[in-house]
Amino acid sequence: MNERPEVSREVLLDARNVTMQFGGLRAVNDVSLQVHTGEIVGLIGPNGAGKTTFFNCLTGLYQPTSGAVEFAGQALPPKPRLVVRAGMARTFQNIRLFHNMTAIENVMVGMYSRTKTNAIDAILRLPRHRREEEESTQRAKDLLEFVGLTGSGDSLSRNLPYGDQRRLEIARALATDPQLLLLDEPTAGMNPQETRQAEELIFKIRDLGLAVLVIEHDMRFIFNLCDRVACLVRGAVLVEGPPAVVQNDPRVIEAYIGMPANDVAAKPTAATEEDADA
Amino acid sequence: MRTVIPDQLKVQLRYPARAVGLAGAAAMVASVFLPWSYGHEALDDVGFTGLPSPLQFVFLILPIAILALLGIPLVGKAKLGRWAKIVAWNTTAKTASLGALATVVVALAAIAIELGGLVNIETGGWLALVGAILAAAATVFLPDSPEPTLSRVKSPRWLQITAIVVVMAIVLFGSAYALGMDDAGAFLTLAALLVGIILTLRQFGVFGWLGIASANNNRVLVMSAFVVAFAFPFTQNGSNANMSIAAQVLIFAATALGLNIVVGLVGLLDLGYIAFLGAGAFTAAVLSDSAFATINFHPPFIVTVLIAGTVSSLLGLMIGAPTLRVSGDYLAIVTLAFGEIFRISMLNLDGSDGPNITHGSAGIPGIPDLNLFGFDFGQAHIIAGIEIGRFANYFWLMLLVMALIILVFTNINHSRIGRGWVAIREDEMAAEAMGVNTFALKLLAFAGGAFLAGIAGAIKAHHDVSVTPEQYVFLESAFLLAAVVLGGMGTVSGVLIGAVILKVLPEKLRFFSDYRLLLFGLLMILMMRFRPEGIIADERRQLEFHDDDEELADEIEEELITHHAHLNPERKGFEL
Ligand SMILES: Nc1ncnc2c1ncn2[C@@H]1O[C@H](COP(=O)(O)OP(=O)(O)OP(=O)(O)O)[C@@H](O)[C@H]1O
Ligand SMILES: [Mg+2]
Question: Which pTM value belongs to this model?
Answer without folding.
Answer: 0.80
